[in-house]
Design brief:
Elements (H helix, E strand, L loop, with lengths): L2 H4 L4 H17 L4 H8 L5 H7 L6 H10 L11 E4 L7 E4 L4
Length: 97
């Protein structure tokens, strides 16, 4: 497991993205097996991603979204102003709960 995926601070964001991908797969009525085939990954891997026993690499994550004909969109929410930055106040955006 790589450092980026293993960092606990990213767990909530990761879980939220996985949840959205699962809902979209089900909305499109695509089976996990069919999605494995579309992505070109080994049998059962999508199921492991969805239940959290394995984590996709960033590349696999991108292939997963493309196979569902989706894209990731970052939307800033709840700006947090960080004072004392050398270039003036810094806006930091956190994901919504």
């Amino acid at each position: 497991m790589g450092l980026w995926w293993g960092m606990s601070a990213n767990h909530d964001l990761y879980a939220a993205l996985i949840d959205q991908l699962v809902r979209e797969r089900k909305r499109q009525n695509i089976s996990q097996a069919a999605l494995n085939h579309k992505i070109g990954c080994t049998e059962g891997l999508v199921a492991k991603w969805e239940c959290g026993s394995r984590q996709p690499t960033p590349r696999s994550f991108a292939e997963w979204t493309q196979a569902l004909r989706c894209s990731l969109l970052l939307v800033p929410t709840q700006p947090e102003i960080v004072e004392g930055h050398r270039d003036g106040p810094l806006r930091h955006f956190s994901p919504s709960p």
